[in-house]
Amino acid sequence: MAEQEGEGYTYPAPGDESTADQTRTTEGGVLVVDDRSSEDIIKQLVGRVDTLSIEYNKILLTVDDLKKRNQQDQNVKDQLSDIETRLTVFTQQAFMNHRKRIVHESKNFAAKLKGLSESIDQESAKFESILDNAYKKMDEISDQFQMFHATSHAYRYPITVLSEKVEDLDTRVSILEGGEGRAQSLEPHDLDDEDHHDLADEDHHDLADEDHHDPIIMND
């Protein structure tokens, strides 16, 4: 159906009978659409309004959904920011606590090391004192041993001489006991004088020999 537009109305094109049957002209020359055609147009308009309303509602729902998402995103951002802030504060506090603990433990360890070093120094001083005393005792023992060695050398010859004297006296006693004729011919006084004279001579000779040998022994 071909239509031509006029000023404020639509009229049928020439030869269009169907449209002419549905329209009429009033006295004022205004073209009025038939009631049936108006109802269709109104229905179409109402349908379009309903469609637009539905689309508008969808748009509103979408906008609300976006707002909710934005709000949720903002809430998430706020929560993340709060978590980040708490984590930062916790990390700083933990770092400060660990730092204080490290400093405290370091001071305690330094004090223990100082005490241990002082104890080691004291024990070292005691040990050095013990070593010094031990060395002194060893020197004293060495000196005493040398003196004993020298004394033993000094008395070795006199002891030997005395032993020889004892053996000689024992031999003489045996001879005297065995020689009865001589014992009868000699008076006790004469025998005592002879023995005294012999012993005096031997003692003098032994003392001279001892004095002669002592410097050599002491020099050794």
TrEMBL record:
Residue ranges, annotated region (Disordered): 1-29, 178-198
Name of the protein: Uncharacterized protein
Species in which this protein is naturally found: Amphimedon queenslandica (Sponge)
